[in-house]
Write a structure and sequence with these properties.
By secondary structure, the chain is an alpha/beta fold. The protein has 15 helices and 18 strands. Strands 2-1-3-4-5 form a five-stranded mixed sheet, with helices on both faces. Strands 12-16-17-18 form a four-stranded mixed sheet. A three-stranded antiparallel sheet has the order 13-14-15. A hairpin with a 2-residue loop joins strand 6 and strand 7. Helix 1 packs across helix 13, helix 5 crosses helix 13 and helix 12 packs antiparallel against helix 14. The protein is flat.
């Protein structure tokens, strides 16, 4: 009789994991965008890794693009392209309204992916196209999302306009110097003193860049716990709320969901003595005129344009002695001419600052040397720096932010329902305003808590993003000639320490010194 020996299996069958990608839309503000992106990425990574059959295939996101315009959503188009290229097996997104608020577009994309054997899971509606026998439910929900985007907009506009007219509109995010207490703007004494200092410095002749430098040197933080920039200083100097008055509906949204500055297309509402003033109308008008005069001297064409920057070093060079900015000058010699940069304070008063000029070519050569050193030593400088940023444990904070955002979304949904009930006549205005007020207070508290948590995260996230950009830049061939676009991409500003030394303050957070050598 034949003898049979069983040979035990020694290898397990290898089943390829399902490659799952996530799609999201994030806000336009750069810091908020980074935080929102990081929060959603952490959520989807945790969700996908919890399933042993899944493999994270990346997060695709569009920045502040309206859900009604699919053609303008580049990342969504890239997601669809990667699906067609066979890089993705499954897609997860928060809701139908995030994916598309147009029924035709939504169904077209679902059918397009279904033909590729790729399923979509909508978290909010708990719809999985992998288990759908009919498109009816998806079609219905897509239609609801499409009509909801318009009805919500109209109801919100009507509700906000009524509150503009009767004076009950609550400013949920007061500017620096104020906070919300029981739906009213009240002065924050410490911040109010900073606001007064800003106006005093402006009236004394200082520009926004120099004021921002002074505030940062004194250790003051902005409303969101960040550093001061010229734009944030200018925003305070142009904000009429510091006089106690409020102008409402400075911007508006059209029927196509496009946001515009209101130049008279819609009514605006001026509420005088709306709250306690920090600055007098007289000082506010003087500061406005002083800014207008400085802009005229700098080459501003109108109120809505930035300073004319013809040179990449304009506004980027800071004096290490007095903190002032450098101005471009042409020096003439019998043998020819050359470009130099001089401290503005030194030009006005040589006794106020002893810093003398540095040559344009010296700065360019120093930048080229710095980039070459970074390229040669990226393994000992940039990679450890990036690993340090990645090593910061932020999961708990991100999870709390996600919880807050979920609660904020629910509060916003409740506000929309209230607006719909009021416009349909189902509730009395008194009940609506009381409920709306309670929700506004809760939203304000949640937003404040979110700002406190996110303040410590944003700097690190921004530096991490900029470090990635810098590493990509130095991985290329080292520049032999000065590249102004590269300089503007990686350098926040540069401090002229002396005529022999410069410190490049990079956007990623690194500060690197270089010698200034004459050619």
């Amino acid at each position: 009789m034949a003898r049979i020996t069983k040979i035990e299996a020694t290898r397990t069958s290898l089943k390829r994991k399902i490659r799952v990608a996530a799609y999201a839309r994030v806000s336009t503000d750069s810091d908020e965008q980074l935080l929102s992106l990081e929060t959603q990425k952490a959520h989807y990574e945790e969700y996908i890794k919890s399933c042993p059959d899944y493999e994270f295939a990346g997060l695709y996101y569009d920045e502040g693009i309206s859900g009604t315009k699919i053609t303008k959503r580049d990342e969504l188009q890239r997601l669809l392209k990667d699906c067609e290229d066979g890089k993705i097996d499954r897609v997860i997104t928060k809701s139908i309204s995030r994916f598309a608020r147009n029924t035709t577009d939504c169904l077209e994309m679902v059918r397009r992916l279904s033909q590729l054997k790729i399923s979509i899971y909508f978290e909010k509606e708990n719809i999985d196209t992998d288990h759908m026998s009919s498109e009816l439910m998806l079609s219905i929900l897509s239609s609801i999302a499409e009509s909801e985007s318009r009805s919500i907009s109209e109801n919100s506009k009507w509700s906000v306009k009524r509150r503009f007219e009767n004076g009950t509109f609550i400013i949920s995010c007061p500017p620096y110097g104020y906070e919300n207490k029981d739906g009213k703007m009240v002065v924050v004494p410490e911040e109010a003193e900073v606001v007064k200092d800003i106006f005093r410095m402006s009236l004394s002749g200082m520009g926004c860049h120099r004021i921002a430098k002074v505030l940062n040197d004194r250790g003051f933080k902005t409303k969101r716990n960040g550093i001061w920039h010229a734009s944030s200083v200018e925003g305070i100097l142009k904000n009429e709320k510091y006089t106690g008055d409020v102008i409402l509906q400075k911007t508006f949204t059209d029927e196509s969901f496009n946001r515009h500055v209101n130049y008279g297309e819609e009514d605006m509402y001026l509420h005088k003595n709306h709250h306690e003033a920090i600055i007098s109308h007289e000082d506010f008008d003087k500061a406005t005129e002083a800014m207008r005069q400085r802009k005229s001297e700098k080459g501003i064409v109108d109120e809505n344009e930035k300073y004319l920057k013809r040179y990449c070093f304009s506004g980027k060079l800071v004096c290490g002695k007095c903190g002032g900015t450098f101005k471009r000058r042409t020096h003439y010699l019998p043998s020819g001419s050359y470009i130099a940069w001089s401290c503005a304070t030194h030009l006005d008063n040589k006794e106020a600052c002893e810093m003398k000029y540095v040559e344009d070519e010296q700065i360019k050569s120093a930048f080229i040397r710095m980039m070459a050193k970074l390229r040669a030593g990226q393994d000992v400088v940039l990679k450890p720096f990036k690993e340090g940023l990645l090593g910061y444990d932020k999961k708990l904070q991100l999870r709390r932010i996600a919880d807050i955002e979920s609660r904020l979304e629910k509060c916003t949904d409740q506000q929309r329902v209230l607006a719909g009930l009021l416009s349909s006549g189902y509730i009395e205005p008194e009940i609506y305003y009381q409920e709306k007020h309670d929700l506004d207070v809760e939203i304000s508290g949640l937003a404040k808590e979110k700002d406190q948590i996110s303040g410590s995260l944003k700097g690190g996230l921004k530096h991490l993003e900029e470090t990635g950009k810098l590493m990509k830049a130095v991985s290329k061939e080292a520049p032999v000639e000065f590249d102004s676009r590269l300089f503007e991409a990686v350098v926040e500003n540069a401090t002229i320490i002396s005529r022999e030394k410069i410190c490049f303050n990079l956007k990623c957070g690194l500060q690197l010194e270089e010698r200034l050598v004459k050619a």
